């Protein structure tokens, strides 16, 4: 295998590291294999022990390399939306008083001006999405290269993350023996594979039910418009099962996976299974319905929390509704529960490729697809941010002057109605737990949510 054309997507989650290895050769993107391996050293999407994360990443990449008969030098890494802030920006440079052809270097310089204009203390630029270029202040183009210009202006969106968090990730990757090509916001990666062009344009909500947190991200006109984060996820559901049933976390996880439903109405009161309780000689019999009530109670907390922000920003009226990913998307009935709670369309996304048919691979697969489709302009933007180190593939070494293969992806979006509502949310997941200001919410509460023991569990967990 020619390792130099490999694209490797790395998604470091709270509970697992996901790796997808694909080939970006002339025949188009071909997936060779994927691995999900347990993570240690992460909490709510952030690194709390660099060495443990490095070892987790190293193990996952080793498994992926063995599975695909490849040696992995470099990866494209996802960043959780909870780390990110968006800033609208403009940059302008003079080309020549007489006018001349715009070069790659000119595009780099105007992007540098735009990115530098929003530089903030303790935050680092991780992505730049140019919306449009203006030649001589009047001609609006997508790609100004080789056009005659006296001046060049760019408008776009800069995404920044805490410099300390970026340092921690890069250090963990270095300790694992690999280099990072560039970072991609996780929702942008998922949207490149989970949404079609119409959904990206007219609007959809990506609901990522992850291990350590839950995020809901609004994608419209091809860009992130708003996001809300709840620092509760699959780990909390498992913990609830462990506490209520007095069993270990590993047993609780197995019970959730094998017998749990997102909606208790889908579960059976008569179907029962044995639970080994801590400190007891005999196992307890628990019904599917009882287990699902525990799961449902925590899910309702999470969905109510993220739904509040979505309602306030008018996102629940988007035509594509919810696209659900993440490990908890495997809970039976989760799509119906989301659709019922929010009164919108909802569907589960998982990659269609053999070996990837699991929602947990959505981000990692999206990373390789995103990188493969990256336009020349997008690639230049990455080289500005990452100082010419934003290699597109798995090459061990490469001269910065050696142009990468053509990676085409349209990135232009009109800058209409750009209020950047995303930045108005609290990214640490500490919004209050009040209900949605929806006049129909109380009716939904009494009609849909008081199911059996769920009311008791909601009070217990609150």
Automatic annotation (TrEMBL):
Alphabetically list the UniProt keywords. Cell cycle, Cell division, Cell membrane, Membrane, Stress response
Q: Where does this polypeptide localize?
A: Cell membrane
Q: Which residues form the signal peptide?
A: none
Q: Which domain of life is it from?
A: Bacteria
Query: One Pfam family, short name please?
Result: FtsA
Region of interest (Disordered), ranges: 396-449
Residue ranges constituting the SHS2 domain according to the UniProt record: 7-194
Q: Which residues form a coiled coil?
A: none
UniProt KW Membrane keyword: yes
Q: Where is the composition biased (Polar residues)?
A: 396-405
- InterPro entries under this entry? ATPase_NBD, Cell_div_FtsA, FtsA/MreB, Heat_shock_70_CS, SHS2_FtsA
Q: Name one GO biological process term.
A: FtsZ-dependent cytokinesis
Purpose = Cell division protein that is involved in the assembly of the Z ring. May serve as a membrane anchor for the Z ring.
Task: Please state what the protein is called.
Answer: Cell division protein FtsA
- Give the organism, scientific name: Lactobacillus equicursoris DSM 19284 = JCM 14600 = CIP 110162
């Amino acid at each position: 295998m020619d390792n130099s054309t490999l694209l490797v997507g790395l998604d470091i989650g709270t509970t697992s590291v996901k790796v997808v290895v694909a080939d970006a050769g002339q025949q188009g993107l071909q997936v060779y294999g994927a691995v999900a391996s347990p993570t240690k050293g992460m909490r709510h999407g952030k690194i709390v022990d660099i060495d443990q994360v490095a070892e987790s990443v190293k193990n996952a990449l080793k498994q992926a390399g063995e599975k695909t008969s490849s040696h992995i030098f470099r990866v494209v890494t996802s960043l959780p939306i909870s780390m990110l802030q968006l800033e609208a920006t403009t940059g302008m440079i003079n080309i020549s008083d007489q006018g001349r052809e715009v070069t790659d270097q000119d595009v780099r310089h105007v992007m540098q001006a735009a990115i530098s204009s929003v530089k903030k203390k303790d935050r680092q630029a991780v992505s730049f999405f140019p919306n449009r270029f203006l030649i001589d202040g009047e001609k609006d183009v997508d790609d100004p290269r080789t056009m005659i210009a006296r001046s060049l202006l760019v408008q776009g969106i800069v995404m920044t993350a805490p410099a300390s968090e970026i340092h921690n990730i890069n250090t963990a990757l270095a300790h694992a023996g690999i280099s990072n090509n560039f970072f991609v916001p996780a929702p942008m990666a998922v949207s490149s594979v989970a949404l079609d062009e119409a959904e990206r344009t007219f609007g959809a909500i990506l609901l990522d039910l992850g291990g350590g947190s839950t995020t809901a991200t609004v994608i419209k006109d091809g860009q992130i418009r708003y996001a809300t984060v709840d620092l509760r996820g699959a780990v909390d559901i498992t913990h609830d099962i462990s506490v209520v049933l007095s069993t270990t976390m590993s047993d609780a996880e197995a019970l959730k996976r094998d017998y749990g439903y997102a909606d208790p109405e889908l579960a059976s009161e008569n179907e029962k299974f044995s639970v080994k309780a801590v400190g007891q000689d005999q196992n307890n019999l628990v019904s599917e319905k009882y287990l699902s009530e525990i799961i449902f109670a925590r899910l309702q907390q999470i969905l109510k929390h993220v739904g509040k922000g979505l309602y306030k920003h008018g996102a629940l009226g988007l035509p594509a509704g919810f696209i659900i990913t993440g490990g908890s998307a495997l809970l039976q009935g989760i799509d119906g529960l989301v659709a019922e709670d929010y009164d919108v369309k909802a569907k589960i996304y998982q990659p269609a490729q053999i070996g990837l048919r699991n929602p947990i691979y959505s981000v990692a697969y999206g990373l390789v697809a995103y990188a493969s489709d990256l336009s020349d302009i997008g690639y230049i933007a990455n080289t500005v941010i990452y100082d010419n180190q934003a290699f597109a593939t798995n090459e061990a070494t490469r001269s910065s002057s050696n142009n990468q293969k053509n990676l085409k992806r349209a990135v232009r979006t009109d800058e209409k109605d750009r209020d950047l509502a995303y930045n108005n949310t609290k990214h640490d997941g500490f919004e209050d737990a009040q209900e949605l200001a929806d006049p129909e919410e109380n009716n939904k509460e009494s009609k849909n949510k008081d199911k059996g023991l769920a009311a008791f569990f909601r009070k217990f967990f609150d």
